[in-house]
Design a protein that fits this description.
Number of strands: 6
CATH architecture: 2-Layer Sandwich
Mean pLDDT: 96
Oligomer: single chain
Largest sheet: 6 strands, antiparallel
Number of domains: 1
Helix content: 25-40%
Structural class: alpha+beta
Low-confidence stretches: none
Number of helices: 4
Radius of gyration: 14 Å
Length: 124
């Protein structure tokens, strides 16, 4: 399966994104990254986010990969008790899953947020 992951951070963003990329290269094969986009926070007042999309291949199921992504977020110091729209160390979401040319999963974030769609267009 080929996965496309949206990565974002506005708390020590450079360090947290570097951490995420290093960790993701351990669990994904053939990774490709978009450029990093700086975008204002959405839904709250806070520091700008740095966002990118990375693609890679994995034999893991959607749920298995998602569990590993949540572990990476937790190890970055992510506080899951904060509101949905708030500053965060690291946010990693599966936004697209392909099986060959077939779309298996596409998140609503792809069409809803330019901080996902623009970097995704760079690497798809």
């Amino acid at each position: 399966m080929k996965y496309f992951l949206s990565i974002g951070s506005n708390v020590n963003p450079k360090e947290n994104i570097d951490f995420a990329l290093d960790e993701l290269k351990l669990i994904l094969d053939s990774t490709i990254s978009s450029s990093i986009h700086q975008t204002p926070s959405v839904g709250f007042k806070g520091d700008d986010f740095l966002n990118l999309v990375i693609s890679g291949e994995s034999e893991s199921s959607f749920d298995e990969l998602n569990k590993r992504l949540k572990d990476i977020e937790d190890r970055s110091g992510r506080d899951r008790n904060k509101p949905k729209f708030s500053s965060r160390c690291l946010d990693i979401d599966i936004v697209l899953q392909l099986d060959g040319d077939q779309i298996v999963f596409e998140s609503e974030e792809v069409s809803k947020y330019s901080f996902v769609s623009l970097p995704l267009k760079e690497i798809i």
